[in-house]
Structures are given as structure tokens and as C-alpha cells.
């Protein structure tokens, strides 16, 4: 799947992943009203509204971006109804030939990680038939439990030709409380990066990049520069662009000299573009057109920075 992701990045010229992280505040009122008129103001109504909202955005951007990244917490908020919206969203995105990165941040003891990996990237056999859970193409993985928590995901990735992005340096303000602490004179995030590079050597794609990727934030460009050197064959998923303060100029060092090696995430900055002054002319009815315009502006910003 890393090879498909790279080919789609080349085709679109957009190393961009759109975060499908819906909240009630971001969904246009007319979509919520239509859903609630049918089902009442219930989790089922929210589920329907979320899917319709996502569908509109996906239809507007699927020809100009290679990938989307639904954050499962935004769906879990509404219980089973929310997970139904998550599942429908993943399936619809795959129908549109988008690469789907499940932002699930899982990682546990071996048997539990194996179950997570099967549920999100793999399959189970029942009655001699294969059944797949959420069936994303990639998943984000928390490495805090060490190899025990990551290797089960790698095993499923090898079987399914899928991938993972391992948390290395995250975008939240307090990330440094642990990630920047030094162990034997070396920052923890650097040690994790070194381990990701080691894991990656076991699962290489034909384009020279591993199925084992990393997450490193645009809000910490100097650390990104160091991690790029540590992980030359690792694709880096870069959050923190846009609403969290990152901009195109912060991204240069996350890329390799071949112009590849990184994919930049924006969530609220795109799916909530209709609420921004810059895109106010679109209004709530054309929220998806505002999202498309925001993607094109982001693409230009990144392209200008790289050139």
C-alpha cells in the first residue's frame, strides 16, 4: 500500500492527506437538520449527518488528493452509531480510490495488538470465509509498549501489503514532557525514530520506502529535520499544518531530495474551511467547495516551499 500511496502522490502532485475529523461544530446546520428531521436528535441522527458531511467533502476532493485520515475518536464519541459512520466513511473513500489512513493510535500487549491489527488492517476467518473489520489501508500505532505492541501490526502489514505510521514526535504542546526527555544523552523521540527505521528494514516497498512509516509534527521542524536523516526510507505523516500553526515553510526538511518521503495532514483547516473568513464566500451550502479550495491553497503553499 505504500507503493500505491506514493503513486497517487505523484499523480496528484499533492503530498496531502485530509483528516476527516468531524465534530458537531464543523457540520453545516442544514446537514444536521436534515438528519435530525429523519431520526431525531440522537446518535443515529449524528451518524447520518457525519456520513453525509464526509461524503460531500470526499466527492469534492477525491480527484486532487491521494489520501484521507479519519480520526476514530470523533466517531467513537457517539458509540456504535458513530462507528457505523466511521465504517461507511472508510468504505466510501475506498470506493473513490483514496488511500485510507485509520487514525486509531493503537498499541498494546502482543495479543491485544494482534486483535487491533486484525480488526483494522486484516481479517478473520469464520465458517471458511474471510471477513474484514474496518479495512483501512494504514493505521497509526503507539509504540510505547515496544516491539510487542508493533510487531503484530507489522505481521498483518506483511500479509495484507498494508502499512502503519508509528508515533515518533507528535504535535500536541505537551509532547515534550516524555518525547524530548533524554535517555543516555539521547532524546526519546530520536530513539523511537531509530527503532522505526530498524523495523522498516523488514518491510520495504518497491519504491524504496517502508510499509512502516512515522508520525512527526510540522510544529517541530528542527526535530523533523533530524528524524528525516535518521529515517531515510521512512514515509513521514506530518500533522500540525494549518489549524495547529504549521505552514509550508516548516515542511521542507520532512521531504527527501526526491520530493517524496512525507505526506502532510490538515483536518479542520480543510473540512472546516467554510467557517473561515478566507472562504466565507462559499457559505455553508457550498462547504465542500470551500474544502476543495483549501486543499488547492495548501497544495500551492507546499509546492512553493519545496521549490
Descriptive report:
The protein has 307 residues and is an alpha/beta fold. It has one domain: TIM Barrel, CATH 3.20.20.70. It is 45% helix and 17% strand. The protein has an 8-stranded parallel β-barrel, surrounded by 7 helices. A two-stranded antiparallel ribbon has the order 4-5. The protein has a two-stranded antiparallel sheet with strand order 8-9.
Quick take:
The protein is 45% helix and 17% strand. The protein has helices at 2-12, 29-39, 43-61, 73-76, 79-95, 110-120, 147-160, 176-179, 188-200, 221-230, 268-271, 287-306; strands at 16-20, 67-70, 99-106, 123-126, 129-132, 138-141, 163-169, 182-183, 186-187, 212-216, 236-238, 262-266.
CATH level-3 fold name: TIM Barrel
State the secondary-structure class. alpha/beta
- Write down the CATH class: Alpha Beta
**How does CATH name the architecture?**
Alpha-Beta Barrel
SSE arrangement, N to C: HEHHEHHEHEEEHEHEEHEHEEHH
List low-confidence stretches. Answer: none
- Beta content comes to 15-25%
Radius of gyration: 19 Å
Please report the number of helical segments: 12
Tell me the name of the CATH homologous superfamily.
Answer: Aldolase class I
**Total beta strand runs:** 12
Biggest sheet descriptor: 8 strands, parallel, barrel
Number of domains: 1
Mean pLDDT: 94
- Give the distance, in angstroms, between the N- and C-terminal Cα atoms: 27 Å
Query: Could you estimate the helical fraction of the residues in percent?
Result: 40-55%
Strand order of the largest sheet: 1-2-3-6-7-10-11-12
Amino acid at each position: 500500500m505504500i507503493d500505491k500511496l506514493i503513486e497517487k502522490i505523484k499523480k496528484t502532485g499533492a503530498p496531502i492527506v485530509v483528516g476527516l475529523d468531524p465534530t458537531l461544530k464543523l457540520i453545516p446546520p442544514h446537514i444536521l437538520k436534515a438528519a435530525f428531521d429523519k431520526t431525531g436528535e440522537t446518535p443515529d441522527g449524528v451518524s447520518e449527518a457525519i456520513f453525509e458531511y464526509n461524503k460531500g467533502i470526499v466527492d469534492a476532493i477525491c480527484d486532487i488528493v491521494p489520501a484521507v485520515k479519519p480520526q476514530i475518536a470523533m466517531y467513537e464519541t457517539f458509540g456504535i452509531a458513530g462507528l457505523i459512520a466511521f465504517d461507511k466513511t472508510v468504505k466510501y473513500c475506498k470506493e473513490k480510490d483514496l488511500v485510507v489512513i485509520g487514525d486509531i493510535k493503537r498499541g498494546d500487549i502482543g495479543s491485544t495488538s494482534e486483535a487491533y491489527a486484525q480488526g483494522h488492517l486484516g481479517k478473520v476467518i469464520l465458517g471458511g470465509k474471510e471477513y474484514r473489520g474496518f479495512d483501512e489501508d494504514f493505521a497509526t500505532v503507539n509504540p510505547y509498549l515496544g516491539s510487542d505492541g508493533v510487531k503484530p501490526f507489522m505481521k498483518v502489514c506483511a500479509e495484507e501489503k498494508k502499512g502503519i505510521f508509528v508515533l515518533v514526535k507528535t504535535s500536541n504542546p505537551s509532547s515534550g514532557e516524555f518525547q524530548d526527555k533524554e535517555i543516555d544523552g539521547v532524546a526519546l523521540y530520536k530513539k523511537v525514530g531509530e527503532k522505526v527505521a530498524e523495523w522498516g528494514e523488514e518491510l520495504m516497498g518497491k519504491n524504496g520506502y517502508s510499509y512502516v512509516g512515522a508520525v512527526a509534527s510540522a510544529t517541530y521542524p528542527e526535530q523533523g529535520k533530524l528524524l528525516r536523516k535518521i529515517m531515510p526510507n521512512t514515509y513521514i505523516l506530518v500533522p500540525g499544518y494549518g489549524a495547529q500553526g504549521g505552514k509550508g515553510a516548516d515542511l521542507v526538511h520532512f521531504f527527501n531530495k526526491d520530493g517524496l518521503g512525507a505526506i502532510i495532514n490538515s483536518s479542520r483547516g480543510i473540512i472546516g474551511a467554510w467557517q473561515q473568513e478566507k472562504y466565507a464566500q462559499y457559505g455553508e451550502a457550498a462547504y465542500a467547495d470551500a474544502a476543495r479550495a483549501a486543499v488547492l491553497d495548501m497544495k500551492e503553499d507546499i509546492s512553493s516551499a519545496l521549490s
